[in-house]
Amino acid sequence: MEWNIVVGIVCTVLGATLSYVAFSRNKTKDDKNEGQQTGVVLTELGYIKGGIDDLKAENREQRKVNTEVYSRLSAVESSAKQAHHRIDRLETDGGHEH
Predict the structure, then answer these.
(1) What confidence score (pLDDT) does residue 17 get?
(2) N-terminal to C-terminal alpha carbon distance within the chain
(3) Model confidence at 14: pLDDT above 90
(4) What is the three-class DSSP state of 1?
C-alpha cells in the first residue's frame, strides 16, 4: 500500500471520529439547554396555575359576597316598600282627621 492511501484512510477515520465526538458533545449541551428551558417553562406554568387558582378562589368569595348583598338589598327594598305604604296610610288617614 502506498503511504498516500494509508494517510488518506487514517485522516478519514480520524475526521469521522472527531465529528462524532463533537456531535455527541453538542448533543449533550443541547439536551442540557433543552432541559433547563423545559424547567423554566414548567416553573412559569406553575406560577400561572397558582395565580389562576388564586383568582378562582377570589371569584368564588366575591360571588358569595354579591349573593349576600343581593339578599340584603332585597330585604331593604321590601322593608322600604312597607314603610312607604305605612307613610302613605298615615298621610291619608292624618289628612282626613285634621
Answers:
(1) 86
(2) 141
(3) no
(4) coil
d(CA 58, CA 55): 5
Q: How far is CA 79 from CA 54, 82, 83, in A?
A: 37, 5, 6
How far is Cα 65 from Cα 69, in angstroms, rounded to an integer? Answer: 6
CA–CA gap between residue 81 and residue 74 (Å, rounded): 11
The CB-side HSE value for 59 (13 A sphere, CA atoms) comes to 6
User: What are the pLDDT digits (tens) for 32-90?
Assistant: 778 888 888 888 998 999 999 999 999 999 999 999 999 999 999 999 999 999 998 88
Cα distance between residue 7 and residue 74, in whole Å = 98
What is the per-residue pLDDT for 96?
56
Cα–Cα dist 81/46, whole Å: 52
Burial of 15 (0-12, 13-18, 19+ CB in 10 A): exposed
Place of cell 423545559: 38
